[in-house]
Model the fold of this input.
Amino acid sequence: MELRAAHAAERDKVLDLLALWYGDRSFFARYNLNDRSFRDDLCLIARDGGRLVATLQIFDRRVRLAGQAVPAAALGSVFTHQDYRGRGIASALISLAIATMEREGFEVSLLFSDRLNFYGRFGWRSAFRVITIVSPPSSEHFTSAVALRPFDRARDLEQVRRIYDRYSGRFNTSVVRDKSYWLGNLSFAGNPDEFFVVAAREQAATAPIVAYARTIRYYQLPAVMEYGYVPGCEDAMAALIAELVALVSGRAQEGPLARYEEATLLKPSEGAEQTTALLAQTAHDPALENALTAKGFSLTYHTDVNYMWRVVSPTRLAARLGWPADEVRKNLFSLVSARDAVFWTADRF
Ligand SMILES: CC(C)(COP(=O)(O)OP(=O)(O)OC[C@H]1O[C@@H](n2cnc3c(N)ncnc32)[C@H](O)[C@@H]1OP(=O)(O)O)[C@@H](O)C(=O)NCCC(=O)NCCS
Done:
């Protein structure tokens, strides 16, 4: 068995293999083609003779931890061909991945998986990521205090980027995004589709954006995969979320968003099980939670433990963050699992 980094010319073969996972080659291709930080040398493969039988991908990210942009190896697309499972091939690739992460200067690693024991054997440990279920008040939905419109990349990206840096930049584990990452992320985050809404105080298309939200269907459920707002504009953010909840629950047939084609993503579809709730992440932001509950929304929480972290380089992380060497792991886990940390679904990999 040959284990090594892939060559660029092997991308198609890797995608052919990943297509066997759940029959959606394009799902993986969207990351490979659009993620500007995608690196073939961080795609590891196992070959048996000429045949590609297993792969994994290290996605190159920087996440904020204690005010620093820390090189983070996001591990994903771990797959072994059915005929080759249970022979230790994925395990061998993961060991190679760890060596690669160390060599390439990554300091931490994160992944999403329900195989907690499997990754636990290689040193990843569950962290906690709180998902909020936002449910509407029982009374009729109220009129919105903001003007809502779909995001337009040419017109809105720079404003949204500034809001992102300022809002998400306050929270541990948020991804540091440059313009190139943003451009790729707009193509792969929805995977395939997202409904991206911006809110302003006035109707004019040139009115400054005060809040935004990016929404998807996540395992069939309507979900906000990221949002942000200008400091002090919790009311606008809450109004935007309220409008999204109204759309989801079918109460906003005539609302400001209903007329946009992309809004179909969130509208209840005929025959599907009716839901009135919207998934989001709010635990990091008590001020927004207060604004939502003041409008009568109820917030319940689900803690996702299928979210794992690992220290890759204790020495570099300790030096960077000024932590005592023997407290690096403990400190990392308390930061990443704290309520004021946020890893947006939009940055999934
Ligand atoms: C998860 C997956 C990648 C594992 O691939 P694999 O090559 O079979 O992995 P390994 O052989 O290294 O380990 C798998 C299991 O076999 C066991 N194993 C390893 N070597 C073995 C050997 N020589 N003989 C028997 N069993 C062995 C491992 O202990 C492991 O046990 P576990 O299931 O209790 O954790 C594979 O099942 C897969 O592609 N699944 C679908 C995609 C997926 O779920 N990916 C992970 C998402 S994060």
